[in-house]
Amino acid sequence: MPNNKKIIKQIAKSRIDYLFQRAHNIYQQNDDLANRYVYLARRYAQRAKIKIPLKWRKRICHNCKRFLYPGINCRTRMQSRRGAGSHISLTCFECNKITRYYVKTNN
Hints:
It is built from three helices and three strands; from the N terminus they run αααβββ. By secondary structure, it is of the alpha+beta class. The chain has one domain (2-103): Single alpha-helices involved in coiled-coils or other helix-helix interfaces. It has a three-stranded antiparallel β-sheet, with no helix packed on it. α1 packs antiparallel against α2. It starts with a helix and ends with a strand.
């Protein structure tokens, strides 16, 4: 039985990666279809109990769960502050949610 779970997780990872690539490629032509691909990828991850890879996790709005395509439906800004901490902020244009990803500095 443990082998079955491992196979299921491998299949789910490959499908998640494929769906996110398709969402990235098709977003400019059909954003509804891209959002559907993201929904399906999230469902695969939930059912297989695996995490979405970090490079794709940052491309989902934490509030409305839509696919974020920088420059089209989200704004990306970098803030560099010594004392307060540097971060990258993503603003979703669909729901106006601002998500900050803090960057560790090597001091």
